[in-house]
Design brief:
purine salvage; adenosine kinase activity; UDP-N-acetylmuramoyl-L-alanine:D-glutamate ligase; transferase; globular; 309 residues; seven-stranded parallel beta sheet; single chain; Adenokinase; alpha/beta; Ribokinase-like
Amino acid sequence: MLFGMGNPLLDISAVVDKDFLDKFGLKPNDQILAEDKHKALFDEIVKRTKVEYHAGGSTQNSVKIAQWMIQEPHKVATFFGCIGSDRFGEILKTKAEEAHVDAHYYEQNEEPTGTCAACITGDNRSLVANLAAANCYKKEKHLDLDSNWELVEKAKVYYIAGFFLTVSPESILKVAKHASDKNKLFCLNLSAPFISQFFKEPLMKVMPYVDILFGNETEAATFAKELGFETDDIAEIAKKTQNLPKVNTKRQRVVVFTQGKDDTVATVGFLSALVQEQALEECIRAGHYAANVIIRRVGCTFPDKPDYH
């Protein structure tokens, strides 16, 4: 029912101090791609006293939570992404299986499985993603294979994080066009301010196919600035975004901007209700519930069953 495609990463979480953030030039609350200057960060973070490893990657987390909220049947969600032939890759495979997600990874041995350092200080977390293998996803070597494309065609709802625009915009376009042609739901997440700033061209190529766009208030503001909307009112930005050109006119675009503790709408559990064809309000309620559970835990983890009715 649900298809996701993105960067499968192993999250390495540890509590750090302000000196650690300063040393690597990190903001307390941010998400960035690792540069050369961050190489040592990964060596240092694993030496911290309390290190936790969790299967991660924005899209993979989202489909996993959708599966958790739905519970039965298993394998409601399919996930594509690229990993390395290594121990971290094996961990991701095991974790996907445990979460009952139907993961079909493109495996290669030129780059190791990607990692994401979650540097925690107090209530904040600074994410540094070293994409590595995740950056090696090849449309013609994986998405285009008949056996894989059949899985794409089966789905009714598609969800891809904007993060994947840095890896394979052509793969996103192929899936987005399919959804649009078949009047199925294509959802995209703005993911981080840097996507709108530095990957605006591929983002705007996909936008005409987007039925549901997700983002938080910072991402929305950056997106608005990049598009010259000349407003910082979130509701106004949502309206203008909704009215951007759209290929499939049978569906009006829905824009979902989260604002932390303020009037929130969240993508995570949202997808589970969407797959079950629930009304928008119900999708948002499911999103709130899932976010409420996960925000209290380290990494993207959850109890055995949701307590949600």
